[in-house]
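Per reviewer request, we include the raw input and output of the structure prediction for the construct analysed in the revised manuscript.
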Amino acid sequence: MFVHRHTPLILSLTFTLGACMFPGHHWGEWNDSQLLPTIQKLMKGYNRYLRPNFNEGPVEIGMSLDIASIDAISEINMDYTATIFLRQRWRDSRLVFPGNESVSVDGRLVSLLWIPDTFIPDSKRSFLHDVTVENRLIRIFSNGTVLYALRITATIACNMDLTKYPMDRQVCTLQLESWGYNLQDVVFYWTRGNDSVKGLDTLRLAQYSVESYYTSVSEAVYETGQYPKLVLHFALRRNVLFFILETYVPSTLLVVLSWVSFWISQSSVPARTCIGVTTVLTMTTLMMGARTSLPNANCFIKAIDVYLGICFTFIFGALLEYACAHFYTMQHQTIEDLHRDLVREFYESNGNGSIATSIRPKNSVKVNPPEEESTEQSATSDTKTTSEPKEEKPGPGCILSSMKDASRKAASIFIVKNPHNIDRHARTVFPTAFLFVNILYWLYYLFL
């Protein structure tokens, strides 16, 4: 018999278990029931373009996963990169052979068999490992069950809610769907429920820890029909300790450093100004550094942004406090100097004798002649009689005077009698307010 040299040699391979499985038999003594089937026998009449159970019902495909690693989780791109072992099982009655053994076939023979068209819908990039050969496994059991395993690395999208960053908890998914076969053709199921996923319990990630995971079975509805879908849900909790040491502690210390100026004399203008400006600039640099690791186009107001904003407000408030205290100190000194100058000028212009005569005793009474008294009494009686029936209406001068009085009262509120009290009150108000805001902040973002 002539065999062309381009005929695939793999079609003539015969898979045998060897004498170790049948130690009492020799090659010439094997019968048909003991011989394992050849690829030629299994492929006889086999059409890899037709699914199993064609025109008889859908093919049930069981899935299981081993998560080898989660290499990276990116908040900027909102995705994660994982290496997984995907195992699929289904029964193909065309591959039944006698016996109760299984045959492991070279992965390069996958082109001879029908395999499911499973894909990851949220995948951005993925590839099949091929060192040293393509990482595929095909195992055929005697009852026609086919095990097909792959080693895949994929970058998968994960929609993240960063409003509580870095105290956030992200729920990501890994979805498996059929590309072309709908629910009338194939049905997906997890082989062992939640136990179908292995490896998540032992993963060690840099910023996250796997909090929980579970599996679900659903349907993907598209314009072309309904398709089977399996979903793995897993929750990731971010480790906040790194951010506390890197961002929260330095920003808190900067706020405390800005309070040092409250204990420095108001006359030390360079010292207090230097502390205020330095803390403001350092806080600005810290805020810019915290945002470099996050997307610029992100519209989320994150928890770390809120805290940095609070710290910046308190630091800037300490700087404004010194500005106000210094302003009122200078104003108070100006008023005292003006009063002192007026008193000095008064003494210099009048002299001691004139001052004594100009000051009238409190008990002195001015005595008028009797004629003047009678004239004044008649004049006052006349004015009383003429003014009694008429009611005086407030003129525009009274309204202006009342407005001036109100403005003086409002301005007196902002007048500080002792500017040094501003620093004394700030030593208590600033730490108390900062502590209160911190309590509200951590209660909200950790427990609500």
